[in-house]
Amino acid sequence: MPRQSIPLAIADLSQFSRALGAQLAVRPDRAPSHLSLLNMLARAAGFRNFQHLRAGAAPAADPAPPPEAAPEPVDLRRIAKVAGLFDAEGRLSRWPSKRAQQILCLWALWARLPAATPMSEREIGERLRALHLFGDPAILRRDLVDLGLFRRDPDGSNYLRLEQAPPAEARLLIRELAPRSRP
Questions:
Q1: DSSP class of 180
Q2: Alpha carbons 37 and 35: distance in angstroms, whole number
Q3: 124, 129, 177 from 180: Cα distances, Å
Q4: Burial class (CB in 10 A: 0-12, 13-18, 19+), 129
Q5: Is residue 144 a contact partner of residue 119, using CB atoms and an 8 Å limit?
């Protein structure tokens, strides 16, 4: 079995040499053994002894797996309430007043807009008009950009859906509304 290399980083070489010299001066009559010299080097570097130095340099024998991320909290009542804002054809009937509900609505609309397809302001406006009934595609378009679901060119000429994983609540809402969507 090959020996493990044990790195020794010394922040201040001058202090290290003084500490090592002081330990060697204690026994001027004989040279220290191999283990004694290792302990002296470790103590001069600020460790208790060589075992302490080696323990700090040894990789973990069996690293613990990273903890699994807790599942995102899902409010089924909010999903049901937001799903109720969409008609039988999957069109948004009114713009909710609560921001959390607005965000879920935007995710649902985002899912129904084409991916990897640059659209002019007019094109995205027409698509959004077909997806809602309250006659304000501008608020939807602005909020899609502000939420980071769409990218808009600085002059407003082109819009592009940004691909990303929806949060858990949005995924459930999108799944709930899928049968209502027109092909």
A1: G
A2: 5
A3: 21, 17, 5
A4: middle
A5: no
**Pairwise CA distance, residues 125 & 2, whole Å:** 68
Burial class (CB in 10 A: 0-12, 13-18, 19+), 177: buried
Q: What is the pTM of this model?
A: 0.63
Helices within the chain (DSSP H only) = 13-25, 34-44, 50-57, 76-83, 99-112, 121-131, 137-146, 168-177
DSSP string, 109-128: HHHHSPTT--EEHHHHHHHH
Q: Which two tokens stand for residue 34?
A: 């191999």
Encode pLDDT of 39-86 as tens digits.
Answer: 888 887 878 888 887 777 665 555 667 777 777 789 999 999 999 999
Any idea how long the chain is?
183
